[in-house]
Amino acid sequence: MSLEDLKEKLSKVVEPGDMVPRDYEKDGCLLEIKARAEQVEAVAKAALEADCFLESIAAVDFTNGPQIIYQFNSCTSISRVLVRVQLSRGESVVSIGSIYDAALWYEREVFELFGIRFDNHPDLRRLLLPEDADFYPLLKDYGKVHAFRSTEDIYGE
Amino acid sequence: MANEFLEPITEQTFYLNMGPQHPSTHGVLRLFLKLDGEYIVEADPVIGYGHRGHEKMAESHLYEQFLPNTSRMDYLAGLIFNHGYVAAVEKMTGIEVPPRAEYIRVICAELNRISSHLLWFGTYVMDLGGFTPFLYSFDDRENILDILDRVSGSRLTYSYCRFGGVSRDVDDEFITATHQFIERLRSRWDDYHNLVTKNVIFIHRAKDVGVINREVALRFGCTGPILRAAGVPYDVRKAEPYSVYSELDFEIPTGTKGDALDRYLVRLQEMEQSLHIIEQALERLPDGAIKAAVPHKVRPPRGDYYFAVESARGAVGFYIVSDGTSYPYRLKARVPSYGNLQVLTEVLPGTLVADTISILGSIDIVVPEVDR
Fold it and tell me: Quick one: A3-148 is in which CATH superfamily?
């Protein structure tokens, strides 16, 4: 399926204003979606219907709260879509493990490295760290980092 | 009394730890298996024994300083990871790479892909009980290590690429040795097929074992030979051509069923395709500089970027958030073995313990790549 199909399916679940086209030549992504935490499940369902696979789930820590970036792509035509979810500190997000099995491990990883909880996750244990780890190493206040910035510093929003 | 029967014994399940130190896991992987007799009821891969925190390390290192880390994530296809990271930063900063450097990168990356596949070939067959092919494939692989050792200075964890090019130029001896290697490996295919592909024991251990179809592969985000064995011709080198792959002619081998035998055949054909790519690249190798002039410290503009390459195991991607300084604000490596290993939770239940070895071997994981 093409990017157009995916856009059409996504336009039913997010506001058109939240879908921002990106320059593939510049940064390797075709579309960015600014979603709220409660929209994630619907977006993932739309992506699955459009025959996409979940490429990765990454999180980034900012002074104004962590961000989760879901990345979908299709194996028939290049259609990389980033779904950006801005969370406030301590906010949880709903798991998409029932839609994409790949998400189960990615979510466990984000949980142990950033302390972001995923609601309805069947098995939210630590994945890479020891079971008894009581720290979240990829948060910017842990260990040695070069800078701790807000989303405004980087994306100018 | 004769017409009374004993109550049937209720089946009891038990747990078995395979690993963390098991010869077939190739790295420190523990499979926590729930068994009913010899059949697997549940499988839980336990990973993280080799977690080094590469992503955290990136945040306190210059872009240049992080270069050697990339080849240590997947130590069997280190050069490809290295290439991916370098190409990502080049795209972010807009560095133009001289054509000669691009061709050298492609030649070396393909040699690295073959060496990774040869190692997999040897160890997979050895896991299934055939020792001889292992010696043959390691003998061939040794040739590649020697070739790459001469240009990059290391035999395994190559950090050969630099921003804007490669660290050292190749000479005539490299080209002759590579040509000789291509000839040598081509003369070996008959041996490999006679020893393994036509071997009835091997066929019984691999055919219809561990079927991963298209739907399952997509739900788990599997890429690389696993996805291609399921009949999906997805290869980053074709889907979003990077470097000079768009100028080179090659095919994407695919399977039909997605069983262990298909994955085996796909990888064998891929090695032949890689030889074909190397031949063309050697023929077209242009003269000129091997490195562009780049600033001492690269400072990519603000924003987030994603760049993908095809490693021996599937799609590798670097998602980098830059804050405009010479340190990455966040670097996330999307590694192919992650999804390829997770699919075991779906594939293993219902199979025999003995088949675990065959399935695990056929998906070709590198555990330090999963752990990062």
Answer: NADH:ubiquinone oxidoreductase Nqo5 subunit (3.30.460.80)
The predicted-structure confidence for A54-99, as pLDDT tens digits, reads as follows: 989 999 999 888 999 999 888 888 888 889 999 988 888 999 988 8
Tell me the per-residue pLDDT of B47-66, one tens digit each, with 9 for 90 and over.
888 888 899 888 888 998 99
Does residue B351 belong to the interface with chain A, where contact is any CB pair within 8 Å? Answer: no
Spatial distance between the Cα atoms of B98 and B102, rounded to a whole number of angstroms: 7
- Looking at beta carbons, which residues of chain A come within 8 Å of B327? 146-147
Which residue among A77, A102, A138 places its CB closest to the CB of B219? A102
CB < 8 Å to A138, chain B: 55-56
Q: What pTM was estimated for this model as a whole?
A: 0.89
User: Which fold would CATH assign to domain B50-371?
Assistant: Cytochrome-c3 Hydrogenase; chain B (1.10.645)
**What is the domain partition of chain A in residue ranges?**
3-148
Contact B306 A82 (CB under 8 A): yes
Which H, E and C letters describe B301-364, residue by residue?
Answer: CCEEEEEEEECCCCEEEEEEEECCCCCEEEEEEECHHHHHHHCHHHHCCCCEHHHHHHHHHHHC
- Tell me what ipTM this predicted complex has: 0.90
